[in-house]
Amino acid sequence: MARHIYDCPLRWSDMDAFGHVNNVVFLRYLEEARIDFMFRLAPGDGSPSFSGGSVVARHEIDYVRPLVHRHAPVTVESWVTKITAASLTIAYEIKDPEQVYVRASTIVVPYDLAAGRPRRITAEEKLFLQEYLDQEPAVA
């Protein structure tokens, strides 16, 4: 099982009044990593996969420890834990080599923007996602 690795820069504006990255900002980090991951099959590679849109149906997030601002990026590792006919679940860890700051998951539903409704996962998308499929939860 492969993991998608995304190096996410921290911005000064990510901090809150307590001097650490605000909890809401972590959702932006997850979004950046998810978009980078899902658009590996984007039209630039000649594939229509995931280009029609997708929507987030659910987020779950566990804040493990505070992250303070620094110049080095934080790593967001992403992988797939579940694939159904019309949704997928992506798991994440926001971390450094020595510690984890956040563990999270997102249920994503492919969406047909033109028709205004959810759609099925294509065979090409499923094949791509299966490379990142790990049905075992991350070790705490």
Low-confidence stretches: none
Number of domains: 1
Tell me the distance between the termini: 19 Å
Number of strands: 6
Named at the architecture level, the CATH assignment is Roll
Q: How many strands, what sense, and barrel or not for the largest sheet?
A: 6 strands, antiparallel
**CATH homologous superfamily?**
Hotdog Thioesterase
Number of helices: 2
Characterize the overall form.
Answer: elongated
CATH topology category name? Thiol Ester Dehydrase, Chain A
CATH class: Alpha Beta
What's a quick, concise take on this entry?
The chain is an alpha+beta fold.
What report would you give on this structure?
The chain is of the alpha+beta class. It has a single domain (4-130), classed as Thiol Ester Dehydrase, Chain A (Roll). The protein contains two helices and six strands. It has helices spanning 23-38, 123-130; strands at 4-8, 54-63, 74-83, 88-96, 99-112, 117-118. Strands 1, 2, 3, 4, 5 and 6 form a six-stranded antiparallel sheet that branches. It is elongated and about 45 Å long. The two termini are 19 Å apart. The mean pLDDT is 90. Pfam families: 4HBT_2. Keywords: Hydrolase. GO terms for molecular function: hydrolase activity. It is an enzyme of class 3 (hydrolase). Its EC number is 3.1.2.-.
Characteristic key phrases:
single chain; 140 residues; alpha+beta; Thiol Ester Dehydrase, Chain A; elongated; HotDog_dom_sf; Acyl-CoA thioesterase; EC 3.1.2.-; hydrolase activity; hydrolase
